Here is the input.
Amino acid sequence: MKPVNIAFIGVGCISGIYLENLTKTFTGVKILGVCDLIRERAEEAQAKYSIPKVYDTMHDAFADPEVEIILNLTRPYEHYAVTKAALEAGKHVYSEKPLGASLEEGVELMELAKAKGLRLGGAPDTFMGAGIQTCRKLIDDGYIGTPVGSAAFMICRGHESWHPDPDFYYQYGGGPMFDMGPYYLTAMVNLMGGIQSVMSASRTTFPERMITSEPFAGTPIHVNVDTYIAGTVKYESGAIGTLFTTFDVHYPGQARFEIYGSEGTLYVPDPNCFGGPVMLYRPEEKEIRQIPLCFDYAENSRGLGLADMAAALRSGRDARADWQQTFHVLDAITGFDRSAKTGQWVDMQTKYTRRPAMVKPVLKGQLD
Ligand SMILES: NC(=O)c1ccc[n+]([C@@H]2O[C@H](COP(=O)([O-])OP(=O)(O)OC[C@H]3O[C@@H](n4cnc5c(N)ncnc54)[C@H](O)[C@@H]3O)[C@@H](O)[C@H]2O)c1
Here is the structure.
């Protein structure tokens, strides 16, 4: 298969792991060019990974006839403009999460991609990793009986202590539900099926925060988003889910993500990661048992979703991390927002069908 040519828009904090995996692990893609508003970032990546081209602007990448998929690694409030311009120029797009910073942005991008017959999808791709895929197999094979509910908690004190430029986490398109919610919601719908409606309560606990990471240590952040969001979801199946995300709380380690079934309970690993321990409790065993992971990609495999989209492009099948999924997740995230403002349940605008389970390839890095 001829590798699919990719161009990066945005070569910031998260780009390193994509550059690493797309050049070393996934054989079906080739990074043709990189572009960043801060040109040195693109030039550094070019030198380190022997990338053929650095584009002056994103429009130069969109105009390059050799580029097939644009990888949008800009900040959440920039996703819409970059993805829209790429689609308008006739390129397929894989975007970091969230798909857009509002439901309206997501609708417009989805409609544009459909009208132009282009692929659109994006992060997270952790649901394709060994941890969530093993959980899915356990559920599908009946190990917890009929799922009746799920509970997930993402608790931390925010990203201003480590990210080099963390302001965007507290602006339009940011906040813990837009930033971390996609990992949890994507895992939830892949394990439990589509969401019918959502409800939530939320608050902004600290209207001003202080950056403690370099190079902006001591700079205040004016918070323009909710940072403590307690959500409830009703799945199409009738099961009930809880999702709590916050940037306001000191909490050591990783909070729980559990799925409750009529015959047992599943302890799901952190959906921000690809692997992690999968634990199963069945009452007759009287103890929690660790289940071996039975799929590839337990290590940080960011780029897996893009590699899957590239393989899908060549074979004509659906991509796993496509807009049907990223849009349903955006539907839920923005639904939490609307519910918090109105105090009402919010019905989802989209129906979701679980994406195909992963297939274990003969050679790692190849996608079906
Ligand atoms: N940092 C992480 O750990 C992390 C983890 C997972 C996902 N993400 C997601 O990845 C995305 C990027 O996050 P980040 O932490 O790398 O942000 P960042 O601020 O470090 O990098 C974003 C980069 O995009 C560039 N950019 C913005 N608009 C551009 C344009 N029009 N043309 C070219 N370059 C442009 C900026 O100059 C910057 O270098 C976000 O959506 C974030 O949610 C980040």
